[in-house]
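As noted in the main text, all predictions were made from sequence alone. Below is one such record, for MHF histone-fold complex component, variant 2.
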Amino acid sequence: MVDEESMRRNLNATPQFIGALTELVWTQIENVAVDLESFSRHAGRSTVTTDDVLLLARKNPDLQQLMGDYVDRLKATAGTAETTNSRRGGGGARAGRAGRAGGGRGGRTGGA
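Prediction:
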């Protein structure tokens, strides 16, 4: 991905830069996973939900607004599908159900 973007922008990314970027992204993903699991556990749940993801974005209001709008659109679409399915006698779509965050069970490894 870095190579493609470098070529598109006519820039050069050294292997050291790519390695450092990879490590940074990996550490951030681990931190996000730990935070999401902590939020869900604090709420007494074993599954991460969209509420946990929105809480994670609380320090970036623009991102939180964008994500909140997206969740609202999904729920509205799922509500329409559930109404349609219930008229047909079928089971409805399960909106707002997120999978459990993978990995990241260990402690934080970075200062991000």
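Residues 1-46 form one domain. The longest helix spans residues 15-42. These features were considered when defining construct boundaries for the mutagenesis experiments described in Section 2.9.
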